[in-house]
Design brief:
- The structure is a single chain.
- Strands 1-7-6-5-4-2-3 form a 7-stranded mixed sheet, sandwiched between helices. A 3-stranded antiparallel sheet has the order 8-9-10.
- It is α/β, with parallel strands linked by helices.
- It folds into 2 domains: about 260 residues, Aspartate Aminotransferase, domain 2; about 100 residues, Aspartate Aminotransferase, domain 1 (Alpha-Beta Complex).
- The protein is built from 15 helices and 10 strands.
- Strand 2, helix 4 and strand 3 form a beta-alpha-beta unit.
- The protein is about 40% helix and about 10% strand.
- It starts with 16 loop residues before the first helix and ends with a helix.
- Helix 2 runs parallel beside helix 10.
- The structure holds pyridoxal-5'-phosphate.
- The site of pyridoxal-5'-phosphate (PLP) has 14 residues, from helix 3 and helix 4.
C-alpha cells in the first residue's frame, strides 16, 4: 500500500519507552494491584491540579458513580446534565436510583447551556433557604446535583454554572473525561466544581487503558470516595499487607465497590502525566494546522462548515467539525463515507442520549426536546487528533475534508 492511501486511524495512544519501562518496573516489583505507584500517581495528579485530594479509580464511569454517591444522590432524586454526552454521565445517575434531568446545550460549545440551566432550576428546584419545593418540583423529587461535561475538552462556563447552582444549594460535578491535558493557563479544567472526574481510557490524551481520577477540595467527600472505591473496607490493600497489623484485621463499614486502579495502570499514568505538556502541544499544533488549512480552503462559514471553539484552556482531546445545516445528518454522513474511502478514520461525538432507546423510551423523549443537541449531533464530525499524526498526515486529512465537503455539496 502506498503511504498516501494507508488508513489513518481515528485515535492512537502515545506510548513511549518510558511508559513501557514503568510497567516493567511494577511487574518486577512483586506487587501488581493498588499500592505505592497509585499513591504516587494520586499525589502527582493532586499537585498538578492544585487540589488537596485526588483518588485514582478504574474508570471515569466509576469515578462519576462515586462522586454522586458521595453527594448522597439517591432514589427519587434528579441530576441535571445535558444529553450531549457519553452514556456514562447518565448511567451512574440510574445506578443510584435517581433520574436524569436533561438540559439543552450551547450550540457553539456543545456544553451545558447556563441560560437553559437557570430556566430549568427556576422551574424544577427550590432556591437555597426556601423550605419547600412547590408543585411539580415537590412531586418529582429534589434536584440533587448538576453534572457539567466539558465536551471535546472545551471548558464549560463554570463561573456561570456554579453561580446558578449555588442559588439552589446544588453541588456541581465536572465530567472532565475530556479535559486532559491541561494547558498552562487558568485553573485546571475540572477543579472548579465540588468534584471533578477524569478519564484515562485508551483513546484519551492521557491514557492508561482503563482508569480515572476523582478530585475534590472537600475532606469528607474524599474520605467517602476512598472508602467506597474499595468495598467499604476501613483499610486499603497496601496498608493491609504492609503494616504490622495483620492483613485480616479490617472492618467492612459500608457495602462499597471494587473501583481501585492497579499499580500497573498507575505507572503508565505517572509517565503520561509527566509528559502532558508535550502531549498537549502536539495536539494543539495539529488542531491549529486543521484550522489554517480548512479556513484557507474558503469553506468555513457560509459553506456550512464551522470550526470548533478556539479556547486557550481547550485540552484538544477532540477536534469536532460542524458540517451541514443541522436539520438532517445527510451532509455529515456523506462526508464520513467519502473520508472512509480516502482512508481517514473519523467518529461522531455524540449521538445525544435523548435519541438512545433507553433514555428515549424511559423518559418519553422526542428528538426536538433538545433542538440544539440534535442539530449539533447532525453536524458533528470528529477528525483524528493525536501526537502520532505527522505533517503529511495532517495535510492529507485536511485535503480529504475539503474534498469530501466539495463532493457533499455537489451530491447533496
Ligand atoms: C464525556 C465522558 N464521560 C465519561 C466517560 C467515561 O470514561 P471511562 O471510559 O473512563 O469510564 C467518557 C468516556 O469516553 C466520556 O467521553
Amino acid at each position: 500500500m502506498s503511504p498516501n492511501t494507508e488508513f489513518i486511524p481515528f485515535a492512537r495512544p502515545d506510548i513511549s519507552e518510558a511508559e513501557v519501562e514503568a510497567v516493567q518496573r511494577v511487574l518486577r516489583s512483586g506487587w501488581l494491584t493498588t499500592a505505592s505507584e497509585t499513591a504516587a500517581f494520586e499525589r502527582e495528579f493532586a499537585a498538578a491540579a492544585g487540589v488537596p485530594h485526588a483518588m485514582a479509580v478504574n474508570s471515569a464511569t466509576s469515578g462519576l458513580h462515586l462522586a454522586l454517591e458521595a453527594l448522597a444522590v439517591g432514589p427519587g432524586d434528579r441530576v441535571v446534565l445535558s444529553p450531549y454526552t457519553f452514556t456514562s454521565t447518565a448511567e451512574v445517575i440510574r445506578y443510584l436510583g435517581a433520574d436524569p434531568l436533561f438540559v439543552d446545550v450551547d450550540p457553539c460549545t456543545r456544553n451545558l447551556c447556563p441560560d437553559q440551566l437557570a430556566e430549568t432550576l427556576t422551574r424544577e428546584a427550590t432556591p437555597r433557604g426556601r423550605a419547600k419545593q412547590r408543585g411539580h418540583a415537590r412531586q418529582r423529587g429534589r434536584v440533587a446535583a448538576v453534572i457539567a461535561v466539558h465536551i471535546a475538552g472545551a471548558p464549560c462556563d463554570m463561573t456561570a454554572i456554579i453561580a446558578i447552582a449555588r442559588q439552589y444549594g446544588i453541588p456541581v460535578v465536572e465530567d472532565a473525561a475530556h479535559s486532559l491535558p491541561w494547558p498552562p493557563e487558568g485553573p485546571p479544567v475540572g477543579t472548579e466544581g465540588e468534584i471533578g472526574v477524569y478519564s484515562f481510557y485508551a483513546t484519551k490524551p492521557i491514557a492508561v487503558g482503563e482508569g480515572g481520577m476523582v478530585v475534590t477540595r472537600d475532606d469528607q467527600t474524599a474520605q467517602r470516595v476512598r472508602l467506597m472505591r474499595l468495598h467499604g473496607i476501613d483499610r486499603d490493600v497496601w496498608n493491609r499487607y504492609h503494616s504490622s497489623t495483620p492483613s485480616w484485621q479490617y472492618d467492612v463499614v459500608e457495602a462499597g465497590y471494587k473501583y481501585n486502579l492497579p499499580d500497573t495502570a498507575a505507572a503508565i499514568g505517572r509517565v503520561q502525566l509527566a509528559r502532558s505538556a508535550e502531549l498537549r502541544e502536539a495536539r494543539a499544533r495539529i488542531a491549529a494546522r486543521y484550522r489554517d488549512r480548512i479556513t484557507a480552503a474558503g469553506i468555513v462559514g457560509q459553506a456550512g462548515v464551522e470550526l470548533p471553539v478556539d479556547d486557550p484552556r481547550h485540552s484538544h482531546h477532540l477536534f469536532i467539525l460542524s458540517v451541514g445545516d443541522g436539520a438532517t445528518p445527510t451532509q455529515r454522513d456523506m462526508m464520513i463515507t467519502r473520508l472512509t474511502e480516502l482512508g481517514i478514520g473519523t467518529s461522531v461525538h455524540y449521538r445525544p442520549l435523548h435519541l438512545m432507546t433507553y433514555y428515549r423510551s424511559r423518559y418519553r423523549l422526542t428528538p426536538n426536546d433538545f433542538p440544539h443537541a440534535l442539530a449539533a449531533y447532525h453536524r458533528a464530525l470528529s477528525l483524528p487528533l493525536y501526537s502520532g499524526l505527522n505533517e503529511s498526515m495532517v495535510e492529507r486529512i485536511s485535503d480529504a475534508v475539503i474534498d469530501a465537503h466539495r463532493a457533499s455539496m455537489q451530491d447533496g
